[in-house]
Design goal:
CATH class of one domain: Alpha Beta
Strand content: 25-35%
CATH topology of one domain: GMP Synthetase, Chain A, domain 3
Amino acid sequence: MTATRFDPVAHAAAMRAGGFWIDKSYDEFLQRTIAGTPDKLALLAYRQDRPDGRRFTYAEFGDVISRVAASLRRRGIGPGDVVSVQLPNWWEFAVVTLAAFRVGAVVNPLMPIFRERELSYMLECAESKVLVVPKTFRGFDHEAMAAALTPVLAKLQHVFVVDGAGPNAFDAALLSGEERLGPPPVGDIGPLLGGAMAVLMFTSGTTGSPKGVMHCLNTLMACNIALAGRFGLDESDTMLVCSPLGHMTGFAAGMLLGLNIGASVIFQDVWEPKRGVAIMAQEGVTFSAGAATFLTDMCEAVIHGAPKPACLRKFLCAGAPIPPALIERVHRELGAVVCSLWGMTESLSSTLTEPERALIKSATSDGRELDGVNVKVVRTDGSPASVGETGALKVRGAQMALGYYKRPDMQPFDADGWFDTGDLAYIDDEGYIRINGRTKDIIIRGGENVPIVEIEGLLFKHPAVLSAALVGYPDARLGERACAFVTLRPGHTLDLAAVQAYMAEHKVAKQYWPERIVIADDLPKTPTGKIQKFLLREQAKAFDDILEKVKT
């Protein structure tokens, strides 16, 4: 008997019937805002190397998009062509994205940290026709790298360089002409259809080979509408986007969300806590998003003299469970509520804690289903897990990716549309999920699963600890033991004996205690602030290997 396969046509029909896929373009919402508030601040982009930000009203922003769209079309860029953008959080990123959508092209956001090895694979796989790079960023010559890659990428036709000096400089090539390509009439979605691939984002993640995740306008819109509804965001908000635009947090839950609802959007290209908090205070930022490390940085910046961001009310926090002590600290010191969110490149924003319950539920959960999203937790045999029982987390719904680009061999969904996230989680009696580790992150010590999230949260509450991560390292007798990597507050010290005494004081089962501690200046993170535990596991194992060699 042939197994039933996932039917994308039926899925799309169900999403449209439910009102989650609306088949509209970002141009339609942009036109509405320009018509209603043309002089309102649309975008303010701050760069580390320039003291003043670049400001655009909605009318100015719309005009520059029209000019870049016309330039792309004149160069033959149209439906289905891939426009790769390797820029920091600069205004040009937003303009290229919406201009590419207008001509029907696919946007491929790329992290600025990528180098020849990653880019050669991603650009070749995407068959990119256009690549937009900075001349230099953080001391690296992106223009030279792009020039070296061009001869080996057969499909790449155009490289545009922001801050460049030649004919392919962004301003000279894309903004020098007088031609405009305006938006389609309201109600006409334009050449980029709602269900066609609009964004191709490669998972850089923390493990595994990059996969090209495909999203369409409908999945992105479903994300924006669900987030704005749960958060209560609208055109009166001012948003700071400090998470990289090459990642879905900054791209979809930051830039596209803000422009979709007609808010004022502010970019910061390099996260400098004191400057970031000062921007929030100066510009009246009401909302921002990022990993928990951003929250710690903000509190520390204010303690050390940065102005308090008085208008900040809501912060979307994703990437890992948030230590309860940090949620309390942000509310006490900054007056903001931290709303926990779980999502991934494939599923965008899937669960979220509403602001009204954030002080209680963000400390114990990663939110509940957003509109158009379903989640479930299952045992290894596929049966539903009980309330509070940890199992495999699966998700389906309106925000799910279309699949993996050029990978027909990788079917991400089962017959009913469920996607296996690779996360471990449990659901409480109110329907809120709690991420309880990754399948690969689990520590099994002598047959006992170590509750990683709870131990990390307890470590974070220690007065000497600024940040903490718990990973396993091999042990011949027990299989694994737990190693705690911690960074310390200035002027504090900590050793293993003190940590274990602290665990005993809090009546933690001895099997769960860290049995090694590493004091680090910093913990390795992705550009979005997520701790790269696979690197910590490698460090812990390498240290163990060194000890074994010494013994022999």
